[in-house]
């Protein structure tokens, strides 16, 4: 397993654990540290940097899983983050994954644990084989696949 964060302190607790490699890397302004690498499982929590979203999706191997959860519009009323560039628009996560993956589950909701937050979360499996080298590449939000029918967005408010 590879754990990546720009904050070395966030990774410190994983150092030395068997089977876990850590990588302290700047994901937004430096060259993409995972270029060309594919993983059977990519997990992203509480992170959104739209300019690198396609690169992040490229890390999911064909047949691999993407588990992604981050803050959504509405969260600004509850606390940080409050800036629009760090909050997903309604249905945005589902749209960004459409055509690249078979959506297994999608939610857009308010959660109360561990702290109140508005989030979107998705579980998706990459079903599309990578295009041959040199082939024109579609932006993930614009890509389509007749095999991938995304699940309809669910708005769910859990009972207290």
Structure in words:
The strands form two sheets. Strands 3-4-6-5-7 form a five-stranded mixed sheet. The protein has a two-stranded parallel sheet with strand order 1-2. 11% of the residues lie in helices and 31% in strands. The chain folds into two domains: 31 residues, no CATH class; 122 residues, no CATH class. The protein contains three helices and seven strands. The relative contact order is 0.16. With 160 residues, the chain is mainly β. The protein starts with a strand and ends with a strand. The longest helix is centred in the middle third of the chain and has 6 residues.
Instruction: Tally the beta strands.
Output: 7
Counting helices, strands and paired strands, the structural category is: mainly beta
Order of strands in the sheet with most strands: 3-4-6-5-7
The largest β sheet comes out as:
5 strands, mixed
The coarse overall form would be globular
Count up the helices.
Answer: 3
C-alpha end-to-end distance: 35 Å
Poorly predicted runs: 134-160
> What does the average pLDDT come to?
83
Taking all Cα atoms into account, the compactness measure Rg is 16 Å
Name the beta content range.
25-35%
Q: Spell out the helices and strands N to C.
A: EHEEHEHEEE
State the share of residues found in helices, binned by percent: 10-25%
Number of domains: 2
Summarize, please:
By secondary structure, the chain is mainly β. It has helices at 8-12, 53-58, 92-97; strands spanning 2-5, 21-24, 39-45, 60-71, 101-111, 117-126, 155-156.
């Amino acid at each position: 397993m590879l754990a990546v964060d720009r904050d070395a302190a966030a990774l410190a607790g994983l150092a030395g654990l068997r089977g876990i490699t850590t990588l302290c890397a700047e994901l937004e302004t430096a060259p993409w540290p995972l270029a060309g690498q594919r993983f059977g499982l990519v997990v992203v929590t509480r992170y959104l940097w739209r300019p690198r979203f396609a690169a992040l999706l490229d890390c999911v191997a064909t047949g691999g899983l993407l588990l992604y959860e981050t803050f959504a519009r509405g969260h600004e009323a509850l606390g940080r983050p409050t800036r629009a560039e760090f909050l997903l628009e309604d249905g945005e996560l589902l749209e960004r994954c459409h055509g690249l993956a078979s959506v297994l589950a999608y939610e857009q909701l308010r959660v109360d644990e561990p702290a109140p937050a508005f989030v979107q979360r998705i579980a998706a499996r990459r079903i599309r084989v990578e295009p041959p080298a040199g082939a024109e590449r579609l932006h993930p939000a614009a890509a389509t696949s007749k095999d991938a029918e995304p699940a309809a967005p669910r708005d769910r408010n859990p009972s207290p």
